[in-house]
Amino acid sequence: MKKYLFLSIAALSLTACISAPPGLERSPFTIQRLAQIQAEDYACQCKKARLGGKILAATALKDKTKLEILSLSISTYSAKPLLDSSVDGRFIAYLPGFVDPAMLKDRYITVAGALSGPENGKIDQADYAYPVVNTERYKLWRLVQEYYYDPDDWDDYWGARHSRWGWGWGSPFWRPEPRLRYNLY
Fold first, then answer.
1. 20 to 30 A from 151, CA-CA: which of 34, 74, 95, 159?
2. For domain 20-141, which CATH number applies: 3.30.70.260, 3.40.630.10, 2.130.10.10, 2.40.50.140?
């Protein structure tokens, strides 16, 4: 009985690790990728969008902060931008109030809010129509470097370590190299 209770608690705690931040759950949003936006979605200004990506530029305005964001696909459950996904395009998000632009540059973000009409701008010398999200909720993510060992490397290490001869790959001086990956928290 205690074993099942422990497993239940462990499963619940692990699901908490992958749930989206409050207000960014996926259910109320009709638009979750830039490719889903249709021309008629701008007319009503009532469509809810949940988008994310890397902040390219931030500008402090009088009563809000304007962000230009390179759109990336976001995780269905955690709402984190997927670092290895392909770029969807760009969009503009307006955050309520003042947020220091220096703090936002090159950060990752997920925004949720109402989709409003497109805003014309330029990317270098090319004209571009940016979809605009009037943000109600957002989450800034921290990019963290993590070192890890591939399980296959450890299998090779332990198999070679206990070899019969005790030299070469079986030498205690050989260790697998840690690998580097990036995660958002």
1. 74
2. 2.40.50.140
